[in-house]
Model the fold of this input.
Amino acid sequence: MSSGGQLPVGTTFPNHARLGVEGTFLTSGQARGYGITKIDPTGPAGPAGLLEGDVIEKVAGKSAKDDNSLTEGLAKAAKKPTYTVDVIRSGKPLTLTFLRAFHPPVTSQVEATAIEATNAVAPIPQPSIADELEKLAKLRDQHILTNEEFEKRKIKLLAQ
Done:
């Protein structure tokens, strides 16, 4: 990713479904799984009936106990037009049906523009491999990249 972590225009993510939520993994208490803190109004979670405060336990039959298992569920969900999401709402189990949706393709590219410097300015250093790995990890954590894709790109970066 020589463009500072910017993905090329037209990049798609057809390998796993999109939930359209933000949250955090809950590892203690009665409900364990992915606790929903925010729902994207343009995503599939709202029409499926998912609410903030719900805790996702399974996606497409796969556990949602950590990043890897949630990503596996989203990969399985991508294979069918609909899939189920098992949640805990107010302490009670509930199964919701989602229509499969994917992350939209990347539609914009950051354009570099020249500016005239009036004072001498130190050049901006290129992102380090550690910076690039951190960006890839964020994409993985946001379920844009699978763990397998993350590992492949990490190996490529480390080979440079």
Observations:
- Helices lie at 45-48, 67-77, 129-141, 147-158.
- The first strand starts at residue 21 and ends at 26.
- The longest helix spans residues 129-141.
